Amino acid sequence: MKNCLTALLLLTFTCFSWAQTQATSVNFETQTITMAMTQEPPQLNGMKATDQVSIMILSHVMEGLTRYDRRGNIVPGVAERWEVSDTEATFWLRDDAMWSDGQPVTAHDFVFAWRNALKPQTASEYAFILYPLLNGEAINKGEMDPAALGVEALDDRTLHIRFERPTGYFDKLTAFVTYFPVRQDFFETKNQRFGADAEDLVYNGAFQISQWVHSASLRMTKNPYYWDRDNIHLNAINADYITADTRSRLNLFIDGKIVSTALDGETYKDALTQRFRIRRFTTGTVFFLEYNHREQRVTANLNLRRAIQHVFDPDEMVNKVLATPGNLPGKSLFPVWLKGKTDKFRQEYRAPEAALDLDLAREYLQKAKTELGLTAMPPLVLLVGDSPTAAKQAEYLQGKLKSTLGLDIKIDIQTFKQRLAKMTAGDFDIVAAGWGPDFDDVMTFGDLLSSWNLNNRGRYNNPAYDEQVRIAMNSADPKVRMDAMGKLQQIVFDDAVVLPQYEQGVIYLLHPELRGVVRRVVGADPDFTYAQVVKPNQTK
Amino acid sequence: MSDSIAPSFTPDYTPASHGHSVEQLSRPSLSYWQDAWIRLKQNTRAIISLYIVVSLALFTLAGPLLWQVDPALQDLNQISQAPSFPKRALLADPYERWQPIILDDFPREPETYVDVDLMPAPTGVQPLGEPTTQQIRLRWEPVVGAGGYSIYRNQHAPEGINDLGLPLATTLGGNEISYEDRLNLEQRDYYYSIVPTDGFDEANIYTTIKVLPTIAITRDEATQRGLIDADTEIQIGDPLSLRFHPFGTDYLGRDMLARLMQGARVSLFIGICAPFLFVMFGILYGGFAGYFGGQLDALLMRFADFVVALPFLLFMILFKIAFGIGPGESGVLPMLIALVLLGWPGTARLVRGQVLQIRNNGYIDAARLLGAKDSYLIIRHILPNTMGVILVTLTFAVPGAIFTEAFLSFIGMGVAPPTPSWGSMCNEGVKTMLSHPHELIFPATFISITVLAFNLLGDGLTEALDSRMRSR
User: Which of B150, B158, B145 is nearest to B117 (CA)?
Assistant: First the structure.
């Protein structure tokens, strides 16, 4: 009997592995694709999600009031139309928006989700993104009852929102995961297990999770109740592999097991010899050197920062030191892809550039020494992450500042958590930092250096800067807001608050038979929602 | 028989004359050291190793005097160069930031998106200005319906749409019809392909152009590198020789030879200082324990056992903290101390064993009976007889210490950048092992040769200093 069982098990196992090996990256007949996740999502409770993989999966299986189209514009999601004014907003929900169990998505689901995400006991790291709602911040700090939140369901199909301050970009915020709806009755039956497993979620997006084998695979299938189901071509998205190792991902891609993989400085050479078409994409993240502006630090001195500004060449850094394609030289805190009034922000407000001028830089350094009353500058501590490229950049900067200004740099290499702790404690002179956007508006970068922002690790404090942020925050007029941001850009340059290094770009491979995949700077990345497998002979 | 006859006979024996006549030595007598040296000289491997060790010392100490190149100087025009003869370059104008060509009379984004598969390939692709390794500038004619252009670069002629090479950039509008490439340019053929996009999707058509840049260096850089004087005769466009890097350069264009010399200082300093110190301490400790023996010996040796059990890496980290070695400061001193404090028990045990053995020999007892004091016994009899063991331990400890240094620098616990050591150079080199193998091969070879040389020399010394093998 035992033998029988073993044989049966063996048989199932063989069948299973046979089925596994048959799974290819794309299948035209079944419209199925297979991908690899860099890590397993810790959980899929949208109110708490912070990591990239969770956000990517959630954006496929859930939908907010609005969503981004493939060109990055805001289009209707659960809401079919909306009105946003300085003080309030109204969203009208579509009739055919359904949960995956056939129940309609109502305005109450949004009210419940937003109140819940702001509750202090939920401890959502992204709660701040709900602060534009009236009393949002006070509720999150436990000072007010969640019921006081400025959101109410006028009826099942109408959602009315009151703002704490004018939020012209509110329609963009509603596409973010923290703004996704949660159904109260379902949430309460699941209690603490909400989002922990495939059956512990109810879905309103284009797909639903049909199978989730923890630390092995995750399978998304088309949601039959999704309102736009006729335009969804893929029947299933299989995440059969979990690995962040670019080398093994490349091997999976070469073997035709996964549809897409990112490349790094070493693997791209193999991809070139394999004759794959390499694509590039700007992640939207800006990397910069942030100075410590605390009083006791020498980097609080403006002339020292200006001296460094006049010798650092972001162009050289990107082309010679990073030396992988896709990165753009950093010229501003605001990346090139941000939208301005009508055009791109950076087209409308050109970023000022410091001339590379060694004599001028030395003059500034001399001034700094006089002001600080020093004959020689003490060594500056440069805090960086522990990746190979980070160390290389740090050494480049060390050599550059030594050979041009005679400044000594001590490189402090730390792991991510340790670096964050040191950044928060202010235990650095210069830190190599990066900032990725949370939503598609200049404000996601603009308020970064305001005195109240906890992510302003250098504790830069300039009332003029804060004032411009407030002007932009308290207005819904694009011109007023963008003008204020343009002034911010100038302040960041004049005060040499941070030193932009580069805008990160990645290169990646994508299966040529898969069309319509969208890479995004905000939200789901990559987005397979409207993707489609084309016939093999259609590709050239 | 009473009348005795005076004895009159030749005696069989005569008393020996008083004098010191020992066997005649045909050759001058050899001391222990002379004999050892003679036997070492017969050992070819050991002698070669000795020469290597001596040349390493010269390389480290005299090398920087002959090869006066700053090991921290970054030459970003010559990144990751393999060993080669000096290159010639043209003197170029200083780089000026360049604004891309943007047409005013052409739409940035097409009014209606056309099917990307129907888009024509760009025409009139041509280089703008002279292509050099400073910059390659391209321009082309706008394509109707385009919302941007993707620029690819390859090192061989593309064989199809999937073989265009590296995606360098995508311009932001259909009216932006030029691109400047400065990405790590070398003197080789580049095949640039321009693909029109509708601002989002790329077309399946492309135009390729082949460009061969000439090596160029700007006047500022040339002056900074000391290639020309400020009041030089050399004009823009004239050729000049670039810095010669016989061992190539590393990932930031720093001279490998100069770095190897500087790295040798750290590696050999640790490699020789640490063993010397801990062998010294081991001799004293082991000699003391072995000579006096008994309870004291047992106690001392149990303590040595305890030290053996201490984890080296942990202590290294603890010392680093205890010494207040902050981030970005060299960890060589704590490394030395940790090595000395934890390395001695091996030597101590060996010396103790040897001393115990010698102490029980007959000549020691004889000397003691003749009234020799402890100090005389130690200096005259015991120490010289343990010398062989000591020297051998020392030579074997050197490669061990060099290896430890290399390992610690490899994991980032050793020297602080920009100071190189052979271990940290290997650490950097291994990242680009496939594309630029020389960055790993050189320091790795130096470590291997040094370790091998010290090991073979130690082997030779073992044989040469073994008194049982003395030549007769």
Answer: B145
Quick one: tokens of A37?
A: 């996740």
Burial of B98 (0-12, 13-18, 19+ CB in 10 A): middle
Residues 6+ apart with CB under 8 A from B466: B388
Residue A320's pLDDT is: 86
B70-81 per-position pLDDT tens digit: 888 888 878 888
| Ramachandran region, residue A496 (left: φ > 0; alpha: ψ -120 to 50; beta: rest) | left
Q: Are B120 and B205 in contact (CB under 8 A)?
A: yes
Q: Residue A123 and residue B26: Cα distance in Å, rounded?
A: 97
Residue A362 in contact with partner chain B when CB distance is under 8 A = no
Kindly state the DSSP code that residue A176 receives in the 8-state scheme. S
Length of chain A: 540
**Is A196 near chain B, with CB under 8 Å?**
no
Query: How far apart (Å, rounded) are the C-alpha atoms in residues A377 and A366?
Result: 10
DSSP A407-434: --EEEEE--HHHHHHHHHHT--SEEEEE
What is the pairing mode between strands A409-413 and B126-128?
Answer: unpaired
Cα angle for residues A395, B92, B90 (degrees, 5° grid): 95
pLDDT tens-place string over residues B383-440: 878 877 888 888 888 888 888 887 887 777 778 878 888 888 888 888 778 778 899 9
pLDDT at A324 over 70: yes
- Chain-centre distance of CA B155, in angstroms? 33
Least confident of A38-52, A199-213, A219-233: A38-52
| DSSP per position, B39-92 | HHHH-HHHHHHHHHHHHHHHHHHTHHHHS---TT---TTSTTPPS-PPPEEEEE
Establish if B113 touches chain A: CB-CB under 8 angstroms.
no
Mark yes or no for CB contact A275/B168 under 8 Å.
no
Residue B439: burial class (beta carbons within 10 Å; 0-12, 13-18, 19+): buried
For the record, the structure tokens of A1 come out as 């009997």
Rg (CA), chain A: 25
ipTM of the shown complex: 0.80
- Nearest CA among B231, B211, B203, B208 for reference residue B219: B231
On average, the pLDDT of chain A sits at 87
Alpha helices in A154-301 (DSSP H): 170-173, 184-190, 246-254, 267-273
Residue A319 near chain B (CB below 8 Å): yes
Cβ distance of B183 and A279 shorter than 8 Å? no
pLDDT in tens, A270-312: 888 888 888 888 888 899 999 999 988 999 999 999 999 999 9
Q: Does B141 touch chain A (CB under 8 A)?
A: no
Task: Tell me which residue has tokens 């196992």.
Answer: A13
Contact yes or no for B326 and A392 at CB 8 A: no
Q: Taking the model in full, what pTM does it have?
A: 0.81
Q: Do A278 and B166 touch (CB under 8 A)?
A: yes
Q: What is the C-alpha separation between B180 and B138, in angstroms, rounded?
A: 6
d(CA A109, nearest CA chain B) in Å: 35
Interface residue A280 vs chain B (CB under 8 A): yes
Q: Is A135 left (phi over 0), alpha (psi -120 to 50) or beta?
A: left
Contact A325 B169 (CB under 8 A): yes
* Confidence category of residue B8, pLDDT binned at 50, 70, 90: low
Q: What span, in angstroms and rounded, lies between the C-alpha atoms of A387 and A379?
A: 23
**Number of CB atoms found within 10 A of residue A122's CB:** 15
If contacts are CB pairs under 8 Å, which of residues 54-93 in chain A contact chain B? 70-71
> Does position B471 have pLDDT exceeding 70, yes or no?
no
First to last CA, chain A: 56
What are the start-end ranges of the H helices in A119-265? 136-140, 170-173, 184-190, 246-254
